[in-house]
Amino acid sequence: MSSAATRPAGPDDLWSVDEHLEDILSAVRPLEPIELQLLDAQGCVLVDDVTVPVSLPPFDNSSMDGYAVRVADVAGAGEEFPAVLEVVGDVAAGAADPVRVGPGQAARIMTGAPLPPGAEAVVPVEWTDGGLGEGPVSGMRARSLAPQGAEGHVHVYRPAEARAHVRAKGSDVKAGDLALAAGAILGPPQIALLAAIGRGTVRVRPRPRVVVLSTGSELVQPGEQLATGQIYDSNSFALTAAARDAGALAYRVGAVADDAETLRSTIEDQLIRADLVVTTGGVSVGAYDVVKEALSYAGDADEPGSGVDFRKLAMQPGKPQGFGSIGPDHTPLLALPGNPVSSYVSFELFVRPAIRALMGLTDLHRPRARAALKADAALRSPKGRRQFLRGTYADGEVTPVGGAGSHLIAALAQADALIVVPEDVESVEPGSEVEVVLLG
Question: Which of 251-260, 384-393, 404-413, 429-438 has the lowest mean pLDDT?
């Protein structure tokens, strides 16, 4: 894979948000399908339609614990004049050769057990005396405690219609039906269905492996002691969590110091487990912006066709961005800004769609909605920039959270939406309708 940059850009030329995203998505291709065991396929996207090989349920079975009976034998049964039936045996779930129910007979039956030959309905045990002769009961005694319950006689106090409390063969799905369509994401219910129809493996596009690393000599791992001038590394944790939320298998790498060779060797070491690499920090115009130094096209002569194109976007926050590829397999790499809010907003707009494209999904983006701005004063936005402000969304209204600063992590933690202010809008009055990106 190589970057699909199609528009020339001078050092001061701005890319739009849409142009940058289009460049990324035009270069990212879905991962090749593989066959996986069911539990390993959780979260993956199904490649082929799956049809039902055997009906569910595969046989008529009882939906209650009770007695399998003939309808005529319990017609007119009541509290004063119950139907008295001979109990000819037990039918447990998994029974391969159930007893036959003839006229005047009943078989004690458990939930999920096959309806025995001759039976037409099931009466719940609560409608009977349980074979004890002492009036209606609330349940059956365990067979191990009362094996005699499978013989003798049972009094039935209510009639039953034909097929009462019987799950019909194929009432869930029938053989030949479409179980799951290609493109389905395999969550717990889908895996349950695959298992129920006997599928042990399934062909899917695997979850992308995403390696996340942050750069900066000032970064310290949480739990360690801060020295003067140091801060805790939050970006790599935020982006790793965001990648997992998007459906990826994400691996966090400890922060890398501001050294181009160290950064490049660290990334190269990680390529063996990466379908996508995400870096944060070091993409601006400072003297220590090592991501640009290490990964730009000019410094990638050993691997023709790879390298990262660094550009400026007409957006706030997140103006500096990078996209391209690295390594012999041209693994895609997205380089995000280092400020926490810039980094996270950039992930939502660019990395999340790339991850979902690798998964083979067609629905790549967060849902969007229109909302009325609930604010005490007008929102200001720089001309020519598409601004993304944090907000909370509820009942068709969105309220800004925090200011526009790209370092305000506490405000980000409260937000569940991004307020979008278009490039040609410099002020948004309270009550105005705005577009919002819903984050969760």
Answer: 404-413
First to last CA, the chain: 31
pLDDT digits (tens, 9 = 90+) for 19-69: 999 999 999 999 999 999 999 999 999 999 999 999 999 999 999 999 999
Question: Are 299 and 324 within 8 A, CB to CB?
Answer: no
Contact 306, 329 (CB under 8 A): no
Once rounded to an integer, what is the mean pLDDT over residues 163-189? Answer: 95
Pairing mode, strands 105-109 and 83-91: parallel
pTM score above 0.85: no
Confirm if 366 and 348 have CB atoms less than 8 A apart. yes
Predicted confidence (pLDDT) per residue in 65-95, tens digit: 999 999 999 999 999 999 999 999 999 988 7
